[in-house]
């Protein structure tokens, strides 16, 4: 009886077409672009945090802390640099740092000293 059940269950999966998306195919949610409700556009200061092995963060002009993960360009990784940035907040994204709101930067540039 058990052998028969295993044969039936084993055969069910092999006859159905494979509908899994390849790993490099964007999910339908990604195709729509950033979530407008999660977009941030402001200025802030780049900071180097010496915890968890060290990482770069951004403290916005309203004191909100953002964790850009790996999305902060190397050219902007200067402690104390004033920047203008736009990005999508990812509040539910897991992080071991537990510092600031995770954000995927879409644009970031130094603030012109004339402003």
Give the gist of this structure.
With 115 residues, the protein is an alpha+beta fold. It has a domain at 34-110: Beta Barrel (OB fold (Dihydrolipoamide Acetyltransferase, E2P)). It has 2 helices and 5 strands.
Task: Describe it.
The chain is of the alpha+beta class and 115 residues long. The chain has a domain at 34-110: OB fold (Dihydrolipoamide Acetyltransferase, E2P) (Beta Barrel). The chain is built from 2 helices and 5 strands; from the N terminus they run H-H-E-E-E-E-E. It has helices at residues 2-15, 28-31, and strands spanning 39-49, 55-60, 65-67, 82-89, 101-110. The protein has a 5-stranded mixed beta barrel. The radius of gyration is 22 Å and the shape is globular. 15% of the residues are buried. Residues 13-39 are annotated as: Disordered.
Question: What is the annotated CATH architecture of the domain at 34-110?
Answer: Beta Barrel
The number of helical elements comes to 2
Unreliable runs, pLDDT <50, ≥5 residues?
Answer: 1-29
User: How many E-type strands?
Assistant: 5
Which range does the strand content fall in?
Answer: 25-35%
CATH class of the domain at 34-110: Mainly Beta
Instruction: Name the average pLDDT.
Output: 78
């Amino acid at each position: 009886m058990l052998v028969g059940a295993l044969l039936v269950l084993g055969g069910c999966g092999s006859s159905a077409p494979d509908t899994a998306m390849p790993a490099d195919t964007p999910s339908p949610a990604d195709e729509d672009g950033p979530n407008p409700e999660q977009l941030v556009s402001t200025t802030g200061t780049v900071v180097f945090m010496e915890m968890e092995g060290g990482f770069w963060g951004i403290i916005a002009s309203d004191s909100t802390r953002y964790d850009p993960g790996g999305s902060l360009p190397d050219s902007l990784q200067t402690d104390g640099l004033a920047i203008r940035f736009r990005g999508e907040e990812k509040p539910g994204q897991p992080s071991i740092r537990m510092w600031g709101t995770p954000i995927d930067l879409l644009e970031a540039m130094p603030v012109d000293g004339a402003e």
